[in-house]
Amino acid sequence: MPWKDEMADCETAEDFFELFGIEYLPQRMMSVRLHVLEDFNGYLSGIDPDDYPGEELFLAYKKALKLAWEKHAYSDDAIRAKFQNTQGCGSGCNGCS
Fold first, then answer.
1. pLDDT tens across 21-64, in order?
2. Domain ranges of the chain
3. 67, 70, 76, 82: CA torsion to nearest 10
């Protein structure tokens, strides 16, 4: 099956990583998968398939996924910033600050 068809069948972040042959840390993926997929989607929107002949498009998509992973996989600060609530939720637990 062509890789574009396989990509259309991907349902999880792990599916994309397997398709593109990118290693990931399963434990870390559990906490960053949505952020990685959001960024991956954003990076893909900036890629014009007409600019990448043949397998170069596959490599461009692979690079986009790898960049999205690297942005979140190794940075607790990036995750904390996504969830930080400077107003607090009112529960009094101080977990948001």
1. 999 999 999 989 999 999 999 999 999 999 999 899 999 999 99
2. 3-82
3. 20
Q: Which residue has the tokens 């637990």?
A: 93
Q: Which amino acid does the sequence have at 96?
A: C
List, for residues 68-91, the tens digit of each pLDDT value. Answer: 999 988 776 655 655 555 455 545
CA distance 57 to 72: 23
Which residue is associated with the tokens 């930080």?
Answer: 84
How far, CA to CA in Å, does 60 sit from each of 21, 31, 38?
13, 25, 17
Q: Are 21 and 59 in contact (CB under 8 A)?
A: no
